[in-house]
Design brief:
The chain is an all-alpha fold. The protein has helices at about 30-50, 60-85, 95-100, 110-130, 140-160. It has one domain (about 25-160): Ferritin (Up-down Bundle). It comes from Reyranella soli. This is Exported protein.
């Protein structure tokens, strides 16, 4: 699997200033942001633990590490938002907790890792989409939409690698 460098992202702005350039009051959205941050911690752990398992061939590992770096970027943006409103970002669980929660100990092959990653990425994309409607701040909604697009890109890539077909029906995420 070949990894190409993506087009440069939009210039990194203060995420709180998001789309409109105005300060946003996201304090009422902190629980949603914390939940998203917890999900990013789980995604990072899954890629880190599976990546260190020795089950992935080098090209697949390269993509897994790229996707992990995307999740780290999501984590950092979400944690910064939480800190900016004066709350403490939720901490990651222990690796043992993630191994148990995500059933990472059952992974025996690269195919197992890819299948799990595909499932997790689909859940992440759907999770972000479903949370958008509960967010009160439009700038934060935009951030969640951007993150969900990354998660859908991950799912689409992984789904293709495992030989999955594209969904025949619309509205597959959310």
């Amino acid at each position: 699997m070949q990894v190409r460098k993506a087009a440069p992202a939009l210039p990194e702005k203060e995420v709180v200033l998001a789309i409109t350039g105005k300060a946003h009051d996201i304090s009422q959205d902190v629980e949603v942001i914390q939940s998203a941050l917890a999900g990013e911690h789980a995604g990072i752990a899954a890629y880190r633990i599976a990546g260190g398992s020795g089950l992935l061939v080098p090209d697949t590992l390269k993509v897994a590490l790229l996707f992990k770096s995307h999740h780290e970027g999501h984590r950092d943006a979400l944690a910064k938002l939480i800190g900016n409103i004066g709350a403490t970002p939720v901490a990651p669980k222990s690796d043992d907790d993630y191994v148990s929660q995500l059933k990472l100990g059952a992974l025996k092959s690269q195919a197992d890792v890819l299948s799990l990653a595909t499932t997790l990425e689909r859940g992440a994309a759907s999770g972000y989409i479903s949370q958008i409607s509960s967010i009160r701040d439009s700038g934060l909604s935009q951030l969640f939409a951007q993150i969900s697009a990354d998660e859908m890109m991950h799912w689409t890539t992984l789904n293709g690698v495992i030989g999955g077909s594209l969904p025949a029906e619309p509205f597959q995420f959310g």
